[in-house]
Amino acid sequence: HSAGDEVGRLVETFNEMLAELEIAYQSLDDSNQRLRQFLADCSHELRAPLARIRSTVDVLTRLDEPNTDDAAFRSRALADVAADTDRMARMVRQLLILARADAGATIERRPVRLADVIDAAYRQAGRMANGVTLRPPDADGLADAIVLGDADHLEQAVLILLDNAFKYTPPPGQVLVRARCEDSQARIDITDTGLGVPPEDRNKIFDRFYRGRNAGAATGTGLGLAIAAWIATQHGGTIELLNTPGDGSTFSLRLPLTEAG
Ligand code: ADP
Question: Where is the signal peptide (predicted)?
Fold first, then answer.
């Protein structure tokens, strides 16, 4: 069977699953208002890219003549599908991390070279830059700093901060990652020239589901910073929003170094 059929079936299964969850959650009382809102947000966040993938795949399966216009269209359409699937995968990964955290999971820790984590996050983040410039990371001050932790989780935390920096920075803005060792800690600062966080939101943005007044039309669920903070805590570290006079934000991730680092 064709890719179109497969996507069609996936969309149907998905919609049925979400509809059932919605019914289940609707019966929750008012104290679970946030949970209900969360489900509605997740549902929207996952449905929108899936619907786009479906219609693109439908169109692609109908293109069969090998003409040049079609070839150009095809590569653009496939890039869109790739971006949408990446987004859905990221969101599902975030939901899994939270579910595991709630079930009391801890992170397995082994020596990780932080410069490699930053490199990996930088390479992934390059694709999110829509009219916003990501400057090459300045990580010389890290040298071979080692933390005890889980490389995938650490990369996830840095990516969440980078993703936010992009989301809340209108073009033509800049995003910069700066990392160095300070005392017995590694410190990774992600700075943007964007909207900044209003003072009344500063204490709430790390809460699950909380979306700031500045979030506007930016897509999201309010889960990112909660997950990033959980990852930092699991490593004995912290994430802090630094006071930034003027425009933009700096989020600072600090992690204890190992003896060797
Ligand atoms: P989401 O981005 O999905 O809303 P997060 O938990 O990642 O969820 O962030 C929570 C809120 O913090 C956002 O809704 C936004 O208001 C604010 N925020 C996060 N990062 C930034 C940033 N770099 N600049 C301005 N505001 C930010």
Answer: none
